[in-house]
Amino acid sequence: MLAACYIARPKKHEPEGHPTLRVAVYSSFDSLPESARLLCVAAGRDRWFESLDWFQCLHATALGPQVEPRIYVVDDGAGAALACFFGCTRGPRDRELASMGNYYTMEFSPIVGAGADVPGVCTALAAHIAAERPRWHTVRLDYLKESNRTTQALLEALDRSGFRTLRHHQYENWYLDCPGTTFDEYFASRPSRLRNTVERKGRKLQKAHQVEFILYRHASDDIERGVRDYVSVYNSSWKQPEPHPGFMPELARRLVIHDCLRLGVLYADGKPVAAQFWITTDGEACIYKLAYDEKFAELSVGAVLSREMFRQALDVDRVRRIDYGMGSESYKREWMSASQEIFGVRAHSRRTASGLARILVASLRTAAKRLTAA
Fold first, then answer.
1. What is the pTM of this model?
2. Which of 10, 90, 180, 219 could staple 18 via S-S, CB 3.0–4.6 A?
């Protein structure tokens, strides 16, 4: 369903013939125009968390029925989509516009097509959001990476459109840049403690058990079995049960369609003892979820499985980057080479009473923290 349409007309200082951008808002995935779908398909080849399949899977299995999609599409005035922003609300009375995501999200960003004018489409998007009535009190954005230039352009555009953007830290993100790196080269560069542990525990595991590694990737690989074994390991680990048990199986099914699933399971005597769920697109592998059976912790089955997954990523998929997701766990530093911040933003309106009150509260909290630290 098309909810609204906004036209960003050329400014007086812009040359004649400057494109007139239009912004339309859709309240369902099914109502998106074909050009927007194609834009998301193209983006998803490189960045899974910008794909239409990702947002549909998340909304259907892990956000709840009270979360209503609000999808903004910027086009060139002739119907060709240039950008999409997947937002959501929690009902018609909710005047907070949020990025569509939750704790399953690794990164969020507006989706901008190749060759599009990033500042221009972000300006049109922010102007449309600011012009909507009734006004939004807050635009809430989570899981942002500073290295993403589209994110920065949107935040600057929101500032110019009557919002006060306030940033806060959410997570640390460890990653490895590895273009042209083989697994042997990579592993030789790891700390000696890690290499020795993996080799020694791997030999001990092989001696005590019949060990098998299976990578579930294609539809012919019995993906349903792989997911069941992943869930079995996850439930035998230290981690809390999944709050939305249907999410991971559905995510795996969608990833298989695009050849983006790398689900590795390590078996000891036929029993799954470690599992890792990776998402691999063109050039990048994301270590999305991992777990191991605590009964096998002394044999470092998680690290042994990691060796095989890194070998797959570097020697077979030949990725340029491996992303270790969210979190500051110390073990990630042994496998990765650098880190960056994942942050959130609350853009409060300077044109509503509620927005101004939220700005005031945030300012008072900041001042109180400074006094406490002084």
1. 0.91
2. 10
